[in-house]
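Worked Example 4.2. Consider the chain below.
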Amino acid sequence: MPRELWNEGRVVGYSAYEMYVRHHCSVDPDHSPASEKEWLASMMAMGSSMLLRIGTEGNENIEGEHIVDIQLPADSRLCAANNIIASYFSGKGSVTGSENSTGWATKVTDYGTLIDNEQLKHPNVEVNKDIDTNNVPPKSEKGGLDESAVEGIREYMKITDGIVIQPGTWTTNLNKPPYEDFKPELSKAPTIRLSFSDRINKPFYVLFTGFTNRTVVDGQTGFETAVNTKSPADGDFLGPWAFPWAAKIFFHVPTSFISYYMDNNYSRKLPNDGEDTKVDSDAVVDMSTTNPAEYYEKTKIYQSSAIGVDVTNIHTLKKDAAVLATYRSHKSDESTSKTEKLPPALYGAVVSQKGETKYNPIDTVAPGTVKLYHITGDLTDTKAKEMVEYLEKNTPYNYGFYRDGTSYVVYEYDSSETARIAGNNYIPVSDDK
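Applying the procedure from the previous section yields the following structure tokens:
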């Protein structure tokens, strides 16, 4: 058997681990220090990680923005002595409870599409043999995302913020703000507090990285203050020099989200060619020059054709949003008359805030378009002539007609600018027909 060597080559002094143990016992004699392996592990990489499944149980009555508190397992020895990084986890873990419950995983059962480890398909690698897709098979030959992962990413993006809160004592801070200073109680597990933009409809997994063993923190981190630190220019107030009064969680936007949602992966088949064509274009709605509302507000014409809209919510990174909407201005009830069953029409608006606004009709000037104006005056009314002339002059290949408001007879202007009936036969009608 190999010999166990103690203090080999050492002349004097303590090892780094021994220094940690002595310091820990002096500041917290009531709790055992971490083992040497645990102490070394806490110094490696980015700290310990935890895998959380966010479920749907208890979400039935939740609508819109809300907050959820999730405590780390009671027997966990981890804490957040610094900021934590979180990301969507494409895979699954073993969690106690139903498949819809929220809980911490005790092991990883699925790492996504890049590796398969199930009964029918699993790794089979001999020692010293190169790894390839034959002996360590992926779930999918092309990798990528399955439909379950796509739905999970959609739910993950509903997370809007997060912090880790450690149990402890809050005391008056003489150097406000913040109002209270904090001293942690490391005998208890912390709580993760998450905010969501809406209800979670499908369980998904989040990987949290950056936790530290509490027994190691207990022997290394300062607890005298969480806000009045020695070297704020070095960011020591964010930890781990001082234990922060709350640790921020930074949520990473996964590359899978960027790949799936930022790439406009839209394809279609049209009846005239039958080919599957990918439409690789961005959508741009340009209302910077002409706001649809300006025409109706300034000219005072056809204002009743606008539709009143209550904007209940709007999120945009720009100063406003250009909205194109299709709308059917009738009831969908089958009992309504045929005259009310109109096809969807195109409306537009520039929206900058919540509240009441209007959707205004969007016109078309494609070649061959015919405009019919309803005039309440007689044939000597120049308003009808002006509107027709302006239309045909400024919109090539558009043609204008007007309808007499009394007889409902349709007129047009000939080359001599004389109004004439737009047809040989007509039957005058009354205003109620």
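The two ends are 110 Å apart (CA to CA). The longest helix spans residues 382-394. Compare this with Example 4.1 before moving on.
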